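Retro notes - structure team

What went well: the batch runner handled both jobs without manual restarts.
What didn't: labels got mixed up in the shared folder, which is why I'm recording both outputs here explicitly, each with its sequence directly above its tokens.

Job 1
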Amino acid sequence: LVALGGWGASMARPLLKIQRYFRRKPVRFFSFILLYLTAGSLVFLHSGFVGDSSTGENGGRDTMVASGIGNRVASSDGRGVGMMGRVLKDTRRPTPRRYGPPWMKGAGGKDWEGRGVDYTSSWNRALKGRNAKDLDDGRAKYIGCYIDDTAKRALRGVSFFDYKKMTVFRCQDNCAERGYLYSGLEFGAECYCGHKIQAPNASESECIMQCKGDKGNLCGGANRLSIYRLELSQESARHYGSAIFKGCFHRPDNVTLALPISAVIQNMSVEKCVDMCTEKELSLAVLAGDRCLCGFPTPHFSLHEMEDEDLCLHRCHGEEFESCGNDEYFVVYQTQVQDNRCMDRRFLPTRSKQLIALASFPGAGNTWARHLIELATGFYTGSYYFDGSLYNKGFKGERDHWRSGRTICIKTHESGKKEIEAFDASIVMIRNPYKALMAEFNRKYGGHIGFASQAHWRGKEWPEFVKNYAPWWASHTLDWLRYGRNVHVVHFEELKRELFSKLKDMVLFLDLEVAEDRLLCVEGQKDGKFKRSGLRKLDYDPYTPEMRTSIDELVMTVDASLKKRNMAGVPKEYRPTPR
């Protein structure tokens, strides 16, 4: 006992010293307590994150199949769309990428669990025995075998070689991304691009070398090219070096006013005119015979009325295979010079009392529409979420709270009565569901301008994604039509085709004055930094007949709902083709 008492006394002395120390220094005592609590909180949060990460990358949210996901929309106004209980959301700023199909959460907020169908085997059977020459999926058409001379190439654009992994589709994609009309493969591993085939045909028996990356397809031969004509998407552009070919246009009424810089060039070529206008820091290089003119798009020369290219056929003196136009019909190229007339952007000078939504299903072109609106109006757009990558790319309104009133409109993918009624008006973007689903799938697995891998397309992810997201494509539009107070519908495809007029309508809907010069500037910089260029990256149709039947029904439901509200129905390309 005496020993224990001595031990207790020895332990008490250090504690007594600590007590006296903190009594003399109370600030240090409270600092010590605060440090202790902070350390404990960090340990607790770390354990929480470790627990969350164990659920996997998707957290199960995007791979769930809701019970009854195939429920059909029973009425034309969408009231019959099955909703498996909406997730209630508060009015505080939500966490990033919170949106999702409303039925993907069950009662009590628990995730639904379902089983997806694996279509990989059926796709593999469909692809067996198909050669790239036989494919007719809208991406490219085989032209034939052509002679290729190393001194005078048949295709005179860019080229690249890969002696291990070259495939027909890889070559096509690379040429399409640069806006070329033709792609050609040679020696099993060489890819050439061009706008014209400048060589004679050869026998098909001379293009028999297998592709290095795909033994099932042929990639030309020795000094022989297997050439494909690329069916470029509408937004793809033809290039001459770094310049973009805009087309053939009739001479403007007042050439001096429309194109203030001009010069006569000996041995005229596209390259010489483009170089001259680039040095003058003007965005248009215009060829008129032996004259080169430079300027910007203006109401005097808007580039809205393109003529037949045959009217501009006049061989350049300094370039054998290019056209230089003439005195009446001009060949126009867009240089790499940036048109700064629409680049200034700022927050609204006074806080807006109206909240205007820019609403869309994911993959329907919301980010692109924000880019266009910001350039056309000069004001930042906001977001219901926060995406750091978009902020870093120049969308400075991304950081503002969506109710701040400092932005011209607010991006949202939300649907549901409560969320929609928070806005005073809305621009609703609608896109062909077949394209929107693929775009969102690419974004989900490849980022804003990347592509999902073949493993994702062929695995269980794609069928489950379609099952979850296709009904949401319809319910999103139907909800905004039903609960929105003042709705302006914009179809993605029509905005691409008629950019000037459709964007003008959007600016007017935002209650702003239209600056025509600014809209013309936007046309020259319409793509921004979030565009997937070139051909689509699949060599087969990812939609099964069952998927198409379900999506076609949803398309017709949305079409009927639009017409019921005296709006134009969905564009023709959305509608199912007769089988």
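Job 2
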Amino acid sequence: MGTTSCGGDGERQSIEDKEQYGVLLYYKYTTVPDVDELVSFYESSCNSLGLLGRVRLSTHGVNVTVGGKLSALEEHIAAAKSNCLFQGTDFKLASCHHPLNDKVSQECGFTSLSIRVVEELVTFSTSPLLKSPDISNAGRHLSAAEFHSVLQSAKEQPDGSGKSENKELVLLDARNLYETRIGKFESENVETLDPEIRQYSDLPTWIDQNAEKLKGKNVLMYCTGGIRCEMASAYIRSKGAGFENTFQLYGGIQRYLEQFPSGGFFKGKNFVFDHRISVGSSKEEIIGCCLLCNNTFDDYSPRCRCRLCRMLVLVCNHCQVKGDDYVCELCRKHKGQVPLSLDHSNQPCESKGDDDTRRKLRILCLHGFRQNASGFKGRTGSLAKKLKNIAELVFIDAPHELQFIYQTAATTTPPPLGACNKKFAWLVSPDFDKPSETGWTVAQSQFDPLQYQNQTEGFDKSLTYLKTVFAEKGPFDGILGFSQGAAMAAAVCGKQEQLSGEIDFRFCVLCSGFTSWPLLEKKREQGSIKCPSLHIFGSQPGKDRQIVTQASSDLAGLFDQGCATVIEHDFGHIIPTKSPFIDEIKAFLNQFV
């Protein structure tokens, strides 16, 4: 265990307390036989010693960031060491200035003690489909000295071809963009890969999309204190042959800067998730810059945030304006789009404090056959009201405009067109005719409840239209489809991999849905659909006059059983909003909030 000093001379001089203040970080992956007993230990130890901060516990271990008097922190460490669960734990203790009761301390959770039992010590992914990798397969630990030595050797010995860049070695930063802005490892002959992610749970997707940059290489991973590399390195190694040589900096950047106070190969400052904000080397170098004027700047204490995604941004004192009207580089890069997932409910202590910046889900709503956006919005008013704290529902018209029809038995002359709203469809029958000049046609027969079985055309046009919607109005976290809209949404789910980058979403809600022809083709090609889905339909045959119960049940059967949730109700062709159905809908959506 080492105790380090942090902050400038002014900060050290400001410590006027009789006892110095400090911050303690540690984590431990281990099997916890009795979580309740561990909760009691932390409640007793932290409260009696006056420690504040965050404690996250699970059956897989602990993740702790707390602050208090140095003597109290040392006493807590001694108590933890007496428990065999903490054998081999790296307790990282640093002395620093006492936290002020300001916005920074509140955001970082250092004005109270938060002890929570969680499923994962770090939220590796928000996708219910992606299981956390086996932590026992994590990359080999390299001490700060070993890590430095590898980089030093690469600097002195270029690759065998004599080129200046060592092609066999890459550095991978496992941290978020707002951290890498102000500090990162740099070596002349080694490429540093910065995923530029908003949050840690975005890293698996980046790894999947950039696996070729890692395959066959010696991958040196690093993060603030080490915990994020444990899970991420295990995930990389789980990809099999070519990914075995993945290593991680033990103790993270914090231990490296203790070993190499002048910075070594680390440039800038180490972002930390407590009131200190960042910790630099003795060089006091600045690599960050103001978002607006591009002048050198790396101070996050103003807590400026992007107005779209709420990520921290660097804005110098001269450029700061009231109202926080800033847009980060990632939102600019993606044309102002906010991220698909901002899960702050269970972020690691190392990577996120308790935060109230969570945003609502954005759900694109697809209406049924011969409906329109305004009508569907009205029919789902109760649903929108009950989901108002979770989701924003966005409604659009389908691209195929339909003829108005009327029954001759009811009237001999149709009403004026101005009195009717246009009706649309996602899928149409092979004999589909565009609206005539009069806009009206006489119904050929009485209502046919099985007409949807003949609506097999128009998918390509609707798909192209949805690509435009996602580009201009997106992004969206999920798609909600009703009746034919559900059939369309399900077909899009079936093509989710091919549509990556054009139509990106994380889940679908299919209400009174049925299987469309494009989806049947997809089923034959690749089997079950692996998109998290919620299926809502009537349980009693005959209750839903438009879509038979079996058709909706068959649609649910096309989705992977591990990610499909079914809600059956005893009503008709509606989306139920009474309890317990609305509670089940909320439970599904809350997985993605």
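One thing worth noting from job 2: The domain at 361-407+423-432+449-591 is CATH 3.40.50.1820 (Rossmann fold).
We'll revisit the folder naming next retro.
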